[in-house]
């Protein structure tokens, strides 16, 4: 066991973790950030996405002990009037919603790097996220709506 | 038994651990290692994590090209201005690995140390003639990337050695290059065939790096006679064909991959040629 410090959605946690404990499990089981989900377990589906200092990371492949001192954002931490979240809701970009927190965080990362992405850039950035309901068209539209809205704000 | 994770804070300490511990494996970005652990196929007695060693994620511009630290992420290779400017083929190829999120974590050193025959970056590094810097308690040596991939998932890294840099020479001005990846199952899956190609500005040499087409990434150099793109394609496919020895799997039979390898070769040569004009 090692003691690590994580800041998750602005709140600080001091946590004892095992060497091989995954960030995914720490976030869910020790912090209760249930928007972080396990899908494929190999970094290919994006359901477990978290932002570490604004950079997307597959928490299912990340050992928590390596993130001592990191600042994390999970979808739970986004405000209710978040431009990306509201765009997803209004664009009806979800059915079951399991994958959506991952898509929302990937969209945040993209818009921070590139505030006005075209469709091709959106698709390229979201290529590692899978939605089994298949709402990809609506998801891409939601990212475009969020980009327009952020531009106007 | 779970292998313990050691977290050295200097290269010297890391080398010391690699020298003294049994069955060590270096833990870089960890993306491949974590997947192999989940699949139950990783055999290591001790893991040496580099995430607390400062200075291993630098990209330096050198007279020759770039010196890249082993913990540099694949995504930085894709997006960094200096990489795009000095070695555009490397930036393009690193941008094809897995997905952006995995590229945020996976490391340059870990990627080549993994040594998988299907990886994208080796194809470009073979074409560019990169060198791998290896450090151990015995000192430092450099291995040309063209001698680095020794056998199926076996590299020139000796026990106790750590990849401490990747030197990538910039292609001479006027050269042009591209990377072509063909996947049969899904965009982000391992390729069934991949080819990096560089056309020499004088049209005298064509350099090709092949991925997923044999049990190791392969390098092929083709002299050009200046008779135009069709002759270059014919020379390239003739030189590539005897190198093709693909492993059949769920992504296709050996025959299918062999054919795809020739298609990818032709595509890569034509695209690089087009850019050179």
In short:
The complex is a heterodimer of chains A (153) and B (277). Chain A is of the alpha+beta class and 153 residues long. Chain A has helices spanning 23-30, 83-90, 100-113, 119-125, 136-152, and strands at 2-8, 11-17, 49-52, 55-58, 71-73.
Write up this protein.
The complex is a heterodimer of chains A (153) and B (277). Chain A has two domains: 2-74, Ubiquitin-like (UB roll) (Roll), CATH 3.10.20; 83-152, DNA polymerase, domain 1. In chain A, 35% of the residues lie in helices and 16% in strands. Chain A is built from five helices and five strands, in the order E-E-H-E-E-E-H-H-H-H. Chain A has helices at residues 23-30, 83-90, 100-113, 119-125, 136-152; strands at 2-8, 11-17, 49-52, 55-58, 71-73. In chain A, helix 2 crosses helix 5. The longest helix of chain A is centred in the C-terminal third of the chain and has 17 residues, at 136-152. The relative contact order of chain A is 0.17. The mean pLDDT of chain A is 97. Chain B has two domains: 5-169, Uridine Diphospho-n-acetylenolpyruvylglucosamine Reductase, domain 3 (2-Layer Sandwich); 176-276, CO dehydrogenase flavoprotein, C-terminal domain (Enolase-like, domain 1). Chain B has helices spanning 11-20, 31-38, 74-79, 81-86, 88-94, 100-105, 108-114, 121-128, 229-240, 254-276, and strands at residues 5-6, 24-27, 46-49, 59-61, 65-68, 131-136, 139-144, 149-151, 154-155, 162-169, 176-182, 193-199, 205-211, 218-223. In chain B, the strands form four sheets. A five-stranded antiparallel sheet of chain B has the order 4-5-10-6-7. Chain B has a four-stranded antiparallel sheet with strand order 11-12-13-14, sandwiched between helices. A three-stranded parallel sheet of chain B has the order 1-3-2, with helices on one face. In chain B, strand 8 (149-151) and strand 9 form a beta hairpin. In chain B, helix 9 (229-240) runs antiparallel to helix 10 (254-276). The mean pLDDT of chain B is 95. The interface between A and B is medium-sized, with 26 and 21 residues.
């Amino acid at each position: 066991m090692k003691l690590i410090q994580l800041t998750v959605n602005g709140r600080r946690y001091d946590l004892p973790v095992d060497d091989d404990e995954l960030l995914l499990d720490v976030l869910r089981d020790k912090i209760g950030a249930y928007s972080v989900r396990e899908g494929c377990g190999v970094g290919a589906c994006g359901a477990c996405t978290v932002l570490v200092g604004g950079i997307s990371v597959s928490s299912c492949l990340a050992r928590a002990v390596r993130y001592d001192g990191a600042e994390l954002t999970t979808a739970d931490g986004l405000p209710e009037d978040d431009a990306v979240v509201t765009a997803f809701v209004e664009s009806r970009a979800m059915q079951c919603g399991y994958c959506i927190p991952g898509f929302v965080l990937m969209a945040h990362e993209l818009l921070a790097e590139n505030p006005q992405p075209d469709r091709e850039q959106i698709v390229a950035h979201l290529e590692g996220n899978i939605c089994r309901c298949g709402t990809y068209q609506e998801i891409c539209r939601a990212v475009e709506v969020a980009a327009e809205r952020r531009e106007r704000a | 038994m779970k292998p313990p994770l050691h977290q050295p804070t200097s290269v010297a300490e890391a080398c010391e651990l690699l020298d003294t511990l049994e069955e060590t494996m270096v833990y870089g970005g960890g993306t491949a290692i974590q997947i192999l652990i989940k699949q139950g196929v990783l055999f290591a007695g001790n893991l040496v994590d580099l995430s607390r060693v400062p200075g291993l994620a630098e990209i330096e511009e050198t007279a020759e090209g770039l010196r890249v630290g082993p913990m540099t992420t694949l995504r930085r290779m894709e997006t960094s201005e200096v990489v795009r400017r000095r070695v555009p083929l490397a930036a393009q190829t690193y941008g094809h690995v897995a997905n952006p999120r995995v590229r945020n974590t996976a490391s340059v050193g870990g990627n080549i140390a993994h040594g998988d025959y299907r990886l994208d970056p080796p194809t470009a590094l073979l074409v560019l003639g990169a060198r791998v810097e290896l450090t151990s308690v015995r000192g430092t040596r450099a291995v040309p990337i063209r001698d680095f991939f020794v056998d199926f998932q076996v590299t020139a890294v000796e026990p106790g050695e750590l990849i401490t840099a990747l030197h990538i020479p910039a292609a001479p001005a006027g050269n042009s290059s591209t990377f072509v990846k063909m996947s049969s199952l899904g965009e982000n899956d391992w390729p069934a065939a991949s080819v990096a190609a560089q056309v020499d500005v004088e049209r005298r040499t064509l350099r090709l790096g092949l991925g997923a087409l044999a049990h190791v990434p392969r390098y092929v150099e083709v002299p050009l006679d200046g008779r135009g793109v069709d002759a270059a394609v014919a020379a390239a496919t003739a030189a590539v064909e005897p190198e093709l020895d693909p492993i059949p799997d769920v992504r296709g039979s050996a025959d299918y991959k062999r054919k795809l390898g020739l298609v990818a070769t032709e595509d890569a040569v034509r695209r690089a040629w087009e850019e050179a004009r």
